[in-house]
Amino acid sequence: MIKENYKSGFVTLIGRPNVGKSTLMNQLIGQKIAITSSKPQTTRNRIQTVYTDDRGQIIFLDTPGIHKAKNKLGEYMVNVAERTMSEVDLILWLVEPTTYIGAGEQHIAEQLKRTKTPVFLVINKIDTVKKEEILSFIAAYKDICNFAQIIPVSALKGENTSTLMDQIYAYMPEGPQYYDEDTITDQPERQIVAELIREKALRLLDDEIPHGIAVSIDRMKERPENGSGSGMIDIDATIVCERDSHKGIIIGKGGSMLKRIGTDARKEIENLLDCKVNLQLWVKVKRDWRDSDFLIKNYGYNRDE
């Protein structure tokens, strides 16, 4: 049964890699679900998160950045992003604050011209520029596409995000509540845990290992609660890389880097699961896994196919 004046719908965030899609989604939801990193192409799957308040319910889809694919994983990521645009009620196109519109943006604009879905242009990272410059960015973009709204925001600082949310609701149809009020994401816990470990690895490792790592959760088991009522979860995970030289960098001298990755990841996983975690990490080499259909699927990048 649909409540009176209750709005609900699906919103996708698209844009080139590293424009802040995951940061914005985390900001709008109020919780960290998508991993963020200064390295592009961090998000590999379509991540679905749910925001519920008195006005209604919005399901956000954070997609991989649209870019020129270099391998099978890249092709999969681009296909997921482009397919999502036809399945939603509203598209948020995130761009950098600049007057230069490059080939990547032109490619996305061409895709958007073919869709009947309303499009908001969201100019992100306005905290990095002067306020008086923002009008020139709007002027540069306003005629590239038929935008329903153009809204400048800072996803990192939360600036103008409440205005964005108000406008999103204005464009949502009346509809049912798809998820329980306390649902935040449809991602399995194992997948979020794997992504948190991958985020810490991406943040701590040098640029020598750009995207060639995946994380698989080998075991995730809850221990019986002891007398004090505090349970613990044992997690065994493997970081997969493409080269022996990468394995050495990930492990670090005397295991120091792997220990740092594990310590940082464990803190966030404990916050997520709200209990103590015993995290054990290993590193394996799987050459050219990003060009193997079997391995891509094995590491969880085929859920929407």
Offer a concise description of the structure:
Helix content is 33%, strand content 22%. The chain contains nine helices and nine strands. The strands form two sheets. A six-stranded mixed beta sheet has the order 2-3-1-4-5-6, sandwiched between helices. Strands 7-8-9 form a three-stranded mixed beta sheet.
Using only C-alpha atoms, the radius of gyration works out to: 20 Å
Number of domains: 2
**Main β sheet profile:** 6 strands, mixed
- End-to-end Cα distance: 31 Å
What fraction of the residues are assigned to beta strands by DSSP?
Answer: 15-25%
Give the assembly state of these chains: single chain
**What's the CATH first level of the largest domain?**
Alpha Beta
Number of continuous helical runs: 9
> Kindly state the mean pLDDT as a whole number?
80
Total strand count, please?
9
Summing up helix and strand content along with how strands pair, one would put the structural category as: alpha/beta
Give the CATH architecture of the largest domain. Answer: 3-Layer(aba) Sandwich
Unreliable stretches: 37-44
Write down the secondary-structure element order. Answer: EHEEHEHEHEHHEEHHEH
Query: How much helix is in the residues?
Result: 25-40%
CATH topology (fold) name of the largest domain: Rossmann fold
Biggest sheet strand order reads 2-3-1-4-5-6
